[in-house]
Design brief:
Length: 626
């Protein structure tokens, strides 16, 4: 076996969103990194849709930004259209999303990785991890080269024994045109890990010159867009349009008649697919009462002829895909650059991980991204960031960075992964967060800045820019303490159907009325705001956050009280080698599930699937006697 002379602090396996974030944050913290990838030209690649953010995902990107990640700032630089989603609902679930130039995004990320003095990018395939005394000491490449290290972060995406399906056609690959990875699954299983199979899919890529754009409907982003990153100083993105079309009954009939030609329905695919992002076959089969579905035509990069057909994920044979789409207005003569396909891949149950994303049985080994059963750029990037931070903390023999469910959507995601059954690819939703009123996209800075400082995740100027954003919110809240007289607001209140003021009142008191928004208040209240605040791209967001704090004050207080009430049980530790099977008072299912998951705290035990409140009461009594 050959051995590289270099001893790296951390080996990161994979160069996707998780791998790039893990490598960059660990390198930023002074660690030497070997990023090993099958193809060095694909580092930072957006392999699926040309977008960043979305419902709950936008909150994750904001949290990444405060914790030193690069996804948000990169999306701001590469974005082509920005939109704040969920505006018809409460501000706690508003979520930023951006269409992104995939080529530009990849160029920025790969440039950051390749130019960092602490990162060495190696072309190769890791097939084994070297374990000595239950701790990693290196990785082995397919050519026999051994790379010694102190920690490993596995971010293998869909490449572990990846198998692409297009109808009955099968291709062994990690994604179209790229080789899969074989060996890591077998290595990890030999070390005692258990794996499963999942499935995801992607839609066809269309030739834009084959689309009749006159039959499509244009969709644009916000006129006054909000950036993802607190580090974005100037922000004037283009507003590149996307377009929509609708399928019809003829399209539905073609897909219905050919369902058995889809490997998901013929039995060829054993992996479970994402329920929240169904293929067009699933839509037609599961939602048969709908005769029409909306499809989004999204340009993939500047001056590209390639269009991403969002909403038509499929693994039907290529000729069936074309036949169905050519029944859609505007797509009568459509041509493909690439058909849609499904991909099966190995994953490892994240119940085998600690909340730091380190494996429970092998010290120094971390998993991040789709290897943990998640789906999505944002979920992967967040796990990569946490794994990269904690791999460097592990090397320094320091406490890991962990996030609770009331601190961040990232905390919700990781807690869900390590305590619940992974029955399908995991995707973050706002509904997964019981404390979502506390987890607004607009308060990520105030939620996470202390953690970022504690773990030295940002440099001085980066901290200063985030502090400026926090100060901007404080300035708006201060302005809302000013009084408004009846003659300054009653005309507006009358138009809104609100009771008129009889006496002067603080602006925030008026703002708490259901029909009144901060935009309805007189401009003089904010005339004294610092010019520096007004020049910031996040100036408008300061008003969104200030209004949320005023209007939600009662709900925020109630949820914070719930958090305090839960913390006593949440943080009660469970000994590492605790034997749940010896507690006869627990239900059989609880003993089985708790032995599998091995929760670190009573709070985690409460959220394990199959564990009842009665089981938790028994466990609490037993723990109190230890």
């Amino acid at each position: 076996m050959k051995q590289l002379i270099n001893l790296f602090d951390i080996i990161v396996v994979g160069g996707g969103h998780a791998g790039a974030e893990a490598a960059l944050i660990a390198a930023k913290r002074g660690k030497t990194i070997a990023l090993v990838t099958l193809d060095t030209t694909t580092v930072g690649r957006m392999s699926c849709n040309p977008a960043i953010g979305g419902l709950a995902k936008g909150q994750i990107v904001r949290e990444l930004d405060v914790l030193g990640g690069v996804m948000g700032h990169t999306a701001d630089r590469a974005g082509t259209q920005f939109k704040l989603l969920n505006r018809s609902k409460g501000k706690s679930v508003w979520s930023p999303r951006a269409q992104v130039d995939k080529r530009h995004y990849e160029k920025i990320v790969s440039g950051n990785v390749f130019s960092h003095e602490n990162i060495t990018v190696l072309s190769g395939e890791v097939v084994d991890v070297v374990v000595i005394k239950n701790a990693v000491s290196g990785a082995v490449l397919r050519d026999g080269t051994k790379i010694p290290c102190k920690a490993i972060v596995l971010t293998c995406g869909t490449f572990l024994n990846g198998l692409i399906h297009i109808g009955q056609k099968k291709i062994r690959a990690g994604r179209m045109g790229e080789s899969g990875a074989e060996g890591i699954t077998e290595s990890l299983v030999s070390h005692g890990f258990f794996s499963g199979r999942l499935k995801t899919g992607t839609p066809p890529r269309l030739d834009k010159n084959s689309v009749d754009w006159s039959k499509t409907t244009i969709t644009l982003g916000d006129q006054n867009p909000t950036p993802f990153s607190y580090q974005t100083i100037t922000f004037a993105p283009p507003n590149v349009p996307c377009f929509t079309v609708k399928t019809g009954i003829r399209c539905k009939d073609i897909i219905s008649k050919n369902l058995l030609q889809s490997p998901m329905y013929s039995g060829d695919v054993g992996g479970v697919g994402p329920r929240y992002c169904p293929s067009i076959e699933d839509k037609v089969h599961r939602f048969s009462h709908h005769d029409s579905h909306t499809l989004f035509l999204e340009p993939e990069w500047a001056d590209s002829d390639q269009i991403y057909l969002n909403g038509f994920s499929t693994s039907l044979p290529e000729h069936i895909q074309l036949m169905a789409l050519r029944t859609v207005g505007g797509l009568e003569n459509v041509r493909f650059f690439r058909p849609g396909y499904a991909i099966e891949y190995d994953f490892f149950s994240p119940a085998q991980l600690k909340s730091s994303l380190e494996t429970k049985d092998i010290a120094g080994l971390f998993f991040a991204g789709q290897i943990n059963g998640t789906s999505g750029y944002e979920e992967a990037a967040a796990q990569g960031l946490i794994a990269g931070i904690n791999a460097s903390q592990y090397i320094d023999n320091s406490e890991p960075l962990t996030l609770s469910r009331d601190e961040a959507y990232i905390g919700v995601m990781i807690d869900d992964l390590i305590t619940k059954d992974t029955l399908e690819p995991y995707r973050m939703f706002t509904s997964r967060a019981e404390y979502r009123i506390l987890l607004r996209f607009s308060n990520a800075h105030s939620r996470l800045l202390k953690k970022s400082k504690k773990f030295s995740l940002l440099n001085g100027s980066q901290f200063d820019r985030i502090q400026t954003a926090i100060d901007g919110v404080s300035a708006v809240l201060g302005a809302l303490d000013k009084s408004i007289s009846p003659n300054q607001i009653n005309t507006r209140l009358k138009s809104l159907g609100e009771t008129l003021l009889k006496h002067a009142a603080p602006a925030k008191t008026v703002l708490r009325r259901p029909s009144v928004s901060i935009d309805h208040l007189p401009n003089f209240l904010f005339s004294d705001l610092n010019k520096h605040h007004k020049s910031s791209p996040l100036y408008g967001e300061s008003f969104i956050e200030a209004e949320a704090r005023v209007k939600y004050v009662g709900y925020i207080k109630r949820q914070r009280n719930q958090v305090i009430k839960m913390q006593g049980q949440e943080n009660r530790p469970i000994p590492r080698n605790f034997n749940f099977k010896n507690i006869n008072s627990l239900s059989n299912e609880a003993r089985e599930k708790l032995s599998l998951v091995r929760p670190q705290t009573l709070g985690q035990a409460m959220r394990v699937s199959g564990v009842t409140p009665a089981d938790i009461s028994v466990l609490a009594v037993v723990l109190s006697a230890i």
